[in-house]
Amino acid sequence: MKGPLFYAKILLFGEYGIIKDSKGLAIPFNSYKGALKSAKNLTGEAKKSNESLAEFYSYLSTLNSDIVQFDLVSLQEDVAQGMYFDSSIPQGYGVGSSGALVASIYDKYATDKITVLENLTRDKLLTLKQIFALMESFFHGKSSGLDPLNSYLSLPILINSKEHIEATGIPSQKEGKGAVFLLDSEQIGETEPMVNIFMNKMKNEGFRTMLSEEFSTHTDACIEDFLQGNIKSLFTNVKMLSKVVLANFKPMIPSAFHKVWEQGLQTNDYYLKLCGSGGGGYILGFTEDYEKAKKHLKDYKLELVYRF
After folding, report:
1. Are 128 and 5 in contact (CB under 8 A)?
2. Pick from 111, 168, 209, 261: CA 20 to 30 A from residue 66's CA?
3. Which CATH class is domain 179-307?
4. Closest-CA residue to 146 (of 234, 49, 23, 56)
């Protein structure tokens, strides 16, 4: 048995903001992927994955939901016979490792599933997002459902608000000098503690004001610029966003990277932002000159996501 492939995702813009109903833009990232497989003798990662799937089965079997039902008998049998999720998506890196797993389980075991091939109305997209939020909360405590949705559809998704999401197109890549890239912090980031820090900060009125007046404004402008291909304006807004994140989301930025972040803002050779919830994993970088950015960041592992 080998299931279809499900890809990683990158939330280009909107981390934390989407919890509070501002815009977000997520794109599939095909460098990493996963699929359901089966083996008789499981060892190492495959064995761990199989044990995790057994726990996930128990969780799904207690779900009392009107919007989704699963073929639990088949799922239990397949897990008992050595099913695991074979994935190259790094865990705790903010690129949707649990999202791809959730998408694969929904695809194989949901009994009345919404398929990728049908006309995906706004209602259907919202229903899918709700289902995935329900499923993925097993892994994160609280999930927006966006990672699995992105992985399941393998399309860029524009989040206008909690109640308004749509599949979207992004400008095709150009062979220019500019790039979006990933910087590897070489630390694992845990989603739940980071979200808890954020929720605690939200109790502070000043932080809430900053979020709605600065963070969300710059995020929305970045999304608009990116989708329209307004590259000059995009970099102006990404710089503003990078500044706001450094000033207000320090606990989510690994301390070893505060200086590197600052250096980008001072030289204008690259700008950094959070990729997912932060705390480790990948940091997202934007640059108008990738070769120059690579020289500055030669001590770190970089990975290309998109070219301008």
Report:
1. no
2. 168
3. alpha beta
4. 23
